[in-house]
Amino acid sequence: MNNQSQRVVLITGGSSGIGFEMAKQMVAQHSVVIICGRSQEKLEDAKRKVPQLVTIQCDITKAEDRLALHKQIAMNFKGLNMLMNNAGIAKRYLLAKTGDLESRMEEEMQTNFLAPVLLTQLFLPMLIENKGTVVNVSSGLAYVPLSVEPSYCASKAALHSMTQSMRVQFAKSGIKVVEIFYPSVDTPFQGGHAPDNAMKPDEAAAIALQGLNSGKEEIRVKMAGFLFAVSRLMPKRALSLINGFIPDNVEELLAHA
Ligand SMILES: NC(=O)c1ccc[n+]([C@@H]2O[C@H](COP(=O)([O-])OP(=O)(O)OC[C@H]3O[C@@H](n4cnc5c(N)ncnc54)[C@H](OP(=O)(O)O)[C@@H]3O)[C@@H](O)[C@H]2O)c1
Fold first, then answer.
1. Which CATH number covers residue 184?
2. 89 CA to middle of ligand 1, Å?
3. What is the residue range of 69's domain?
4. What is the pLDDT of residues 111-150, one digit of tens each?
C-alpha cells in the first residue's frame, strides 16, 4: 500500500489520546478511518469532533466483539489496507503488594498483546488481498521496563517480539509490518500524572504518521529513540535512567493501587 490517499484504516482505541489524534490527522490526509473502543460515549464524542470517522463499538479482548467488528468491516470496507493495533492500557502496582496480580496481568496481556495478535490473524486475508499494513503500537518501555508498570512493559516487550515474527512470516504475502514506539505522551492513559516531559498527543501522532508515510518499519518517536540507543549501548544505565524517576515514597503512593 504505497499511496497514502488510498488508505482505509482501522485504528483500535481511536476514540482517545494518540489514537484519536492519529485518526484526525489521517482523515485530514483523506484516509477512510474506522475507529473502535469500548465506550460508546467516547466514540460519539470523537465522531462529534471529526464527523468523517466511522465508529464501531468493540472490546478487543472479547472474541465475539472481534468477530462482529471483522464482519462489519468485511461487509462495508472491503478495501481495508491498514490495521493499527493501538488500544492499550497500563496499571501501576508493586508485585509484593498487589492482591489481584493475576487479574491485572490478564487484563493487560489480553488488551496489549493477545488481542492485537488475534485481530491481526482475523484481518489477515483482507490485508493480504489489499497488500496492506499491520501497525503495532508499542512503547519505549518495550526496550527497558519501568518497574512500577511491570506487566504493561512485559506486554509491550511481547508485542515487540511478536511484531518481528509477523514481519518475517508475512513478508511473502506482501504485508508490511510496522511498529511505533511512543515515549511518554500526555493522554488519559497517564491517569492525570503525566511526567513534565510528556509529549502532546498531536505532536506524537504527527511524528508517527510522518514515519508511516515515509515507509519506515520501526518508528521511534523522540525519547523512545534515545531510550532504544541507550538500552543497546548501556543496558544497565538505561534501566536505572528510566527507573530513576520513581519517587522514594512509591510504596506509599501505590499502597492502594
Ligand atoms: N500515553 C503514553 O504515555 C504512551 C506511551 C507509550 C505508548 N503508548 C501506547 O499508545 C497507545 C494509545 O495510548 P493512549 O495514551 O492514546 O491511551 P488512551 O488515551 O487511554 O486511549 C486508549 C484507547 O484504547 C481504547 N481501549 C482500551 N481498552 C480497550 C479494549 N479492551 N477494547 C477496545 N478499545 C480499548 C480506549 O477506549 P475505551 O476506554 O472506550 O475502550 C481508548 O480509545 C497504547 O497502546 C499505549 O500503550 C502510550
1. 3.40.50.720
2. 5
3. 4-253
4. 999 999 999 999 999 999 999 999 999 999 999 999 999 9
